[in-house]
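hey m, so remember when u said the tokens were messed up on ur end? i reran from scratch. heres the input so u can diff it against urs
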Amino acid sequence: MRKIGIIASGSTEMSAAVILGEGEEKHAKSEDLVLIHNRNGNEILAVCRGGLGSNENLRTGSYSPGVAYARIGRHPSNAKEFYAFGLSVIGEISDNNNLKENKMLIAPSSEVGIFEETDNPMSILGASTRSIGYYKDHPTWKVPLDSEFICYHIGVFAATGAGKSLLTRYQIIPFIRSAGHNILIFDWKGSDYTPFFPNSFEISDLGLDDEVVIEYLCSSMDYFGYYSSSMVERNPIRAALETVVSEGSWRSFDEPEKLRKHLLDRVRIELETENIDERTGKLSYWGRNYIRRFEKSLGKLSDEELGNVMGRMGPAEIVEAIKQHGITVIDLSKGGKENKLSIFLSIAKHLCRLMEKKEMLNLAVVIDEGPQYCPFQPKGIENRTMEMISELCALGRSYNLSVVLLSQGIAGEIGINAAIRRNLNTQFIGKLNPLDLEEATKLLGQADIDPKYLILMPVGDFYVTGKMNPSPIPLLIHFDIKESDKHRGSAQDEKSD
């Protein structure tokens, strides 16, 4: 190790500042790991955060000779110049090279040494061989994350284009697989995961619940022109369609045109039966209007859209496919929002039923585009998906099910609901939207991380904090991104915009 300076006055058990030796300001940088040789008798692992450069001759609060020199373009004396870094304590290094809580005061003037590439302090953090990426700027330093806490659930937060999907695809998923878990991925756009894993299913492959089928058909037909939420609830055409779907005979058809004719005939009969004018005994004006609306809406429905409800694979078969292949992707790209959320609900309900039967799942559910499922202020079907995710989290810790949720934001209008955030006990936080600075301050401010840095972070940098992190304070990890992935990600972002 190389000595870089000594501890300044004002140190505590958990924090200190190191005054850098001459020339070290050109080498030491933020997030460097250092070892404090505490004069009080122990050695302490810490990380550099919050740098400071000071020159008494260049204070701007009042006029001074140094300021006068600066005004005419000359440099004043640097005799009163110094550089320092704040140090966030990770822990005390015990006699057997393990990490424990530091309870000793850090003595001023204690020497500070910096870990260089060949030193590799990661063995101090833990003995796990599983890692995600590596410690920032040190490719050989694999951070040993604790796989025991996978089922305490994981959140990945970063703005669009900051690498959260790539981190999940190339780092988090292999990490979870290496720990013995299978993976179920809900791919909202159908482009982040589906092309990269061979076992995937589209909406048209799935045998959907009656409730999901009804919601899908109604939304695909624009609720037959009933746009008001109050009118949707009293929609007589929907009521007729619900009756026909619940009968179940429609599932025997294997061609869209045959299904179209069956729905048209059966819904027409239901509407005719329910809308007879008592005075004349004939079909009422409103009954004829309902039938015309349904015929017009059904006529606009494409064969492909009808095919999306003709699948045969149920949730139980999907679970079996996951066990067989290890990783399975549900491609949701061909459905509307309510259809996608309904499909999620159908599969999630089955997983909850399995856990209620005390079945150990050994499964991680990856949910991309988290705010679509559990936004800050959920409405309609979002309330049900949010409650379902909360239930998966509550049961998952006991039955080896992990929820991995990705989101462009942490809180507020661009983030996810606080009830879900509280369940994500490990968080990977990358480059954030400026709207998230307040929440980032709450999460990382106590660790001496400047939240403003989070809106400038390069792609591939993530702070990891929480249960899986072997350190009590957030650590900055990095993973390398291939050039092909950079270009693909940019193209996908433009397409989504």
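this time it looks ok to me. Residues 13 and 104 are 6 Å apart (CA to CA). if urs says something different then somethings off w ur setup not the seq
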